[in-house]
Amino acid sequence: xxxxxxxxxxxxxxxxxxMKEMLExxxxxxxxxxxxQEALTYAEREKFDYYFVDIVMPDMDGLEAIERMLLVxxxxxxxxxxxxxxxxxxxxxxxxxxxxxxxxxVKMYDLKRIFKEKQEEEDLQS
Length: 126
Known about the structure:
Layout: E1 5-9, H1 13-25, E2 29-33, H2 36-45, E3 50-54, H3 62-68, E4 78-82, H4 87-95, E5 100-103, H5 108-125
Helix pairs in contact: 2-3
């Protein structure tokens, strides 16, 4: 089975490290980005199966980065991770078509749930 390619956009070093470890444990190939601008550069060069993005970033709002990556055409591949899942942030993400959210601190079962839901969606389509 092909490894899932993940772009992980997270500015907090401890969270970035832990999520990268968990995703790799689940068999994913993870490209970490501590800045949104760095993530934009990666997204220009390669395609990813999933984009895990924090909302609050030091250089640019994570949702703005998603818009700049033109991922609004594939919102089912975007997962918002945030300790700040307030109504305004959730509504902004939903306007972009994003429906997947994980609150920090992220747990292994949260990540497994995301992949399981995606697999179930794909199974229904085939």
